[in-house]
Specification:
By secondary structure, the chain is α/β, with parallel strands linked by helices. Among the domains are: 25-209, no CATH class; 627-804, Rossmann fold (3-Layer(aba) Sandwich). The chain contains 31 helices and 24 strands. A six-stranded mixed sheet has the order 4-5-3-1-6-7. Strands 12-11-15-16-10-17 form a six-stranded parallel sheet, with helices on one face. Strand 4 and strand 5 (146-150) form a beta hairpin. Helix 12 (336-347) crosses helix 21 (496-509), helix 18 crosses helix 21 (496-509) and helix 29 (747-754) packs across helix 31. The longest helix is centred in the first third of the chain and has 53 residues, at 3-55. The radius of gyration is 33 Å and the shape is globular. Residues 64-73, 80-86, 516-553, 670-678 and 755-767 have low confidence and may be disordered. The structure holds adenosine-5'-triphosphate.
Length: 806
């Protein structure tokens, strides 16, 4: 056979394959047309029903209608948005063998997973018994037969679970790519290539190289895409895990933890909407990650029921995105702060001008309590554990007791308790109207707000008193200095770690107490020692609201924590308060933790999750990084956490990371002004900019430049004018994000920037949060990685920094 024949045959095969692809695409187009026709019918029907209900003055809420025909109605109302904003309304198809009757599928429904014994004939032939189309929402035809099955329905599970090793009934899995109403193409995986399957008498063809690789190769934008068309089996198990108790998921970078957590939220809503509607909280580490991920749920047809909040925005009315330096963050996040804040919450009662004497006129005579007596009353009030603001009624009550005693009236009426009670009531009522008394109470037991108390910690002497035996001198100094930003009244800007302190204080202070009411029973008379005491009167009585008292927090039905390895003990307490009665999904990767005291955080996490039973999952495949990048990052992982197993990268691109040294002839990078305005000054900046430009030309999507936290502003200037495809970010901000290409600037600085002491004393190999942060930085790229080293990196002749050499 001549060379020309070989070429002709190959061309012929390619032309055949093209023909099959076109034919298969046309077939799916026919199905999609039918789906849209049906959806249009349902939209008209829904509009008519809404209209009709409105005309007849009935309650025609979408909710009420949805119950009539929930699945199709929902599809209808989402359709227009799906059309305009999202691709792939219908994205999947499975062709199945006949199943064993009566066998249950992965979710316990009667969807047989295993084929019937005679599904494959002895000669290897088999007929496709069932074809299912899978989409973002379910659509039924006029006879209630499914045109599209919701991806979350049990019947759709084999689309995700089938693998060539355990194919079950699935012969062919097809991913359909469409835009609006147009089918663009199909990608098939044959899960049982050993059999000759036919559909309606025709042989079942397979088109393309599989959908996963196609999805992974696409350029990235500034928003995360859903993975609904290519969820992998181990991910699907997490998404569909029963909601009960706590689901814990660990996996290395790029294993899909964030994606899986968001798809799980959509799944839980589908399974039990009544329970979860309005009640799923997703906690994300940074506002950047919130905005990166917030389109995923709407693309899955879920909006409004899930709150995605950054750790700095978890308290209503507060929006913090500033970072503290790591040593400060470490103090603020430590569990030791709970004790300090407890003292501060009580100590703050003495912040203003505390009156040392109470003088009133009662029943026509002067009664007075002196400093010692007042101190004794205060001690007595503080004997309980109720929130400080809620102790105010008790303070009032005990002051009245002391005044009553002092007035001698108690003795005068000792023989007649009934009369004594009556007189006492008059005594209290008189004093409640006496401004000398009410003004005194306001000054002596002021209403405290969390911000005010937090700001009070900025006074170093005062803080040292409150923190005695809990914080070291250096820590007190750092903390006090950092809180000065808040100003005296506490209205200054908050850092992310301040928010957890604020939330802790909200708990310790409680809401401002109700104003005293006549004949009010002091609940603490009976209940001293209870954690939280309010009466119906307190709750319904008029409150003097302060503008800086935030709305009550909510109690969620399910809490999803992303990047859980980074929560500080105080943040765990803050999140735990929002899920006291919740079920939980907690995803994270210890190898990416930037927190130093991991034992302390583990204890706080255990407390937040309580004694609920746990179900653990591990994700093992890295879908983000090509193997060439993952292998480099694994060197740092080996230093940061010796012995840990990295996830396995799913693809190889042939593009190895590029190393560039920005070291001048004098060995300086000049970024710290080593030689003034001269050559070395902006060598690093110029190099980084040039590398970013180079990557922008090489990839279609985004380029992220990751620098040590202290260099963020500088890095933004380096990139000025390069357009919005290039982004500069600090190492801690890179959490959870990804870019087509990244420039990682000075690995040594990123590792040191976090914790110089840990890095230089322990040295590489001693582990440490700094190296884990570097590991995060190195695992953000989906295609290309460039490393720019400065002098601190001690690059070798090839520009490879010391930390990344073999
Ligand atoms: N089954 C899948 N099909 C297609 N893409 C996937 C799949 N699973 C994950 N990905 C993609 O891999 C990338 C990494 O996913 P994700 O950000 O959820 O990982 P992660 O485990 O949270 O990573 P990190 O720990 O680094 O934050 C994303 O682009 C995601 O869309």
């Amino acid at each position: 056979m001549g060379a020309q024949d070989t070429v002709d045959r190959a061309d012929g095969r390619a032309a055949d394959a093209e023909g099959v692809r076109e034919r298969e695409t046309r077939r799916e187009q026919t199905h999609l047309d039918a789906v849209y026709r049906r959806l249009e019918e349902k939209i008209h029907e829904a509009e008519f029903l809404m209209d009709d209900a409105a005309k007849r003055g009935q309650v025609g809420t979408p909710g009420a209608l949805a119950e009539r025909d929930a699945q199709v109605f929902r599809a209808g109302i989402h359709l227009n948005r799906l059309n305009s904003e999202f691709e792939d309304f219908l994205f999947g198809r499975i062709d199945l063998l006949d199943g064993k009757t009566g066998e249950r599928g992965p979710d316990g429904a009667y969807t047989s997973v295993e084929p019937a014994d005679d599904a494959v004939r002895p000669d290897g032939g088999a007929d496709i018994a069932e074809t299912l189309h899978i989409g973002r929402l379910g659509v039924l035809d006029a006879d209630y037969a499914p045109l599209v099955i919701d991806w979350r329905a049990p019947a759709a599970a084999p689309f995700y679970r089938a693998t060539p090793v355990t194919p079950g009934r699935v012969v062919r899995r097809r991913v359909i790519r469409s835009k609006g109403r147009r089918v663009l193409g199909v990608e098939d995986d044959l899960l049982r290539p050993e059999i000759r399957a036919t559909l309606d008498g025709e042989e079942l063809p397979a088109v393309g190289d599989g959908a996963l690789m196609a999805a992974l190769g696409r350029a990235r934008g500034h928003a995360m895409r859903d993975i609904v068309a290519s969820i992998q089996a181990e991910q699907d198990e997490v998404i569909r895990a029963p909601a009960a108790s706590v689901t814990e998921v660990e996996g290395g970078p790029g294993t899909g933890k964030t994606a899986v957590a968001l798809h799980r939220a959509a799944y839980l809503l589908y399974r039990d909407r009544r329970r979860y509607a309005g009640g799923i909280l997703v906690v994300s580490p940074t506002p950047l990650l919130v905005s990166y991920t917030e389109g995923v749920l709407p693309s899955l047809g879920e909006e409004g029921q899930v709150a995605i909040r950054a750790l700095g925005s978890l308290v209503d009315g507060v929006e913090a995105s500033a970072y503290d330096d790591q040593p400060v963050a470490r103090v603020k996040g430590s569990a030791r702060m709970v004790g300090v804040l407890r003292r501060a919450a009580r100590g703050a009662l003495e912040l203003g001008e505390v009156p040392q004497r109470l003088r009133v006129v009662a029943f026509g005579s002067r009664v007075e309590l002196g400093a010692d007596e007042l101190r004794a009353v205060r001690r007595q009030v503080l004997g309980g554990t109720a929130p400080v603001n809620l102790m105010r009624p008790r303070a009032r009550r005990l002051l009245l007791d002391a005044l009553w005693e002092k007035s001698g009236a108690a003795r005068r009426h000792a023989h007649d308790p009934e009369l004594a009670a009556e007189v006492r009531q008059g005594f209290d009522e008189d004093l409640d109207e006496e401004t000398d008394f009410t003004d005194f109470l306001d000054a002596w037991w002021p209403e405290l707000t969390p911000r005010r108390v937090l700001a009070a910690l900025a006074d170093e002497k005062r803080l040292a008193r409150w923190a005695r035996r809990m914080l070291r001198g250096g820590e007190v100094r750092l903390l006090a200095r950092s809180l000065r930003r808040l100003g005296v009244d506490g209205t200054g800007p908050l850092s992310v770690h301040d928010v957890a302190l604020l939330d802790e204080l909200r708990q310790l202070l409680g809401p401002p107490a109700a104003r005293p009411r006549r004949q009010e029973d002091d609940p603490l008379d009976q209940l001293t020692g209870l954690e939280e005491v309010t009466t119906a009167a307190d709750r319904s009585g008029p409150r003097r609201r302060r503008p800086d008292v935030e709305e009550e927090r909510r109690d969620y039905a399910h809490v999803i924590v992303d990047e859980a390895q980074d929560l500080t003990p105080l943040q765990w307490r803050m999140v735990g308060r929002r899920g006291r009665h919740a079920t939980w999904t907690v995803v994270g990767d210890p190898a990416q933790s930037s927190w130093t005291d991991t034992d302390e955080a583990a204890a706080a996490r255990a407390e937040a999750l309580g004694g609920r039973p746990r179900r653990r999952f591990e994700l093992t495949v890295n879908y983000r990084n090509p193997a060439e990048i993952a292998e480099l990052a694994d060197r740092v992982l080996a230093l940061a956490m010796p012995g840990s197993t990295p996830p396995e990268a799913v693809r190889r691109t042939g593009l190895v990371p590029r190393f560039v040294a920005a070291v001048g002839a004098d060995g300086a990078d000049g970024a710290d002004g080593a030689d003034g305005e001269g050559n070395g000054e902006d060598l690093l900046g110029r190099t980084v900019r040039a590398e970013a430009e180079r990557l922008l030309a090489e990839v279609d999507g985004t380029v992220g430049v990751v620098v040590a936290m202290g260099r963020r502003t500088q890095a933004r200037q380096w990139l000025a004018g390069l357009g919005d495809r290039a982004v500069a970010l600090g190492s801690l901000e890179a959490k959870g994000l990804e870019y087509d290409a990244t420039v990682v600037v000075s690995p040594a600085e990123i590792a040191e920037g976090l914790s110089p002491r840990e890095f230089t004393e322990g040295g590489p190999g001693a582990g440490g949060a700094g190296l884990r942060v570097l590991y995060v930085a190195l695992t953000r790229a989906t295609q290309r990685l460039t490393l720019v080293s400065g002098p601190r990196d001690l690059p070798d002749a090839d520009g490879v920094p010391d930390l990344l050499r073999d």
